[in-house]
Amino acid sequence: MDCNDSKCPFHGSLKTHGYEIEGDVVSDKLGKTVIIGHSYTTFLKKYQRSLRKNSRIAAHNPDCIGAKTGDKVLIAETRRLSKTISFVVTKVISKKQ
Question: How confident is the model at residue 24 (pLDDT cuts 50, 70, 90)?
């Protein structure tokens, strides 16, 4: 597939560093941006309990990857691309069935 996206980590000049997060695509209605749902646990020291939390992360979706709603993806941290986007989709782990 021909990818002319300058913000693609494989065909453009965008470098990745830092966190790599696995999550599910919740929404793909924003053009080249997808919203990733990420669930994680954190420990509350005061109560000696674990707490389940959810976060929604906006990530750039290059043309050559093309993640859709329901896909499980891997996103990597990169430089700030816009006010809300600091991640880019690097791989689709599994497609929605």
Answer: very high
CA trace torsion 60, 95, 3, 85 (10° rounding): 0
Q: What is the pLDDT of residue 1?
A: 60
pTM here is 0.86
The candidate with the shortest Cα–Cα distance to 53, out of 43, 61, 63, is: 43
Tokens matching residue 19: 């966190």
In this structure, CATH architecture of domain 16-94: Beta Barrel (2.40)
Rounded to whole angstroms, the Cα distance separating 23 from 25 reads 7
3-state secondary structure of 96: coil
d(CA 55, CA 1): 32
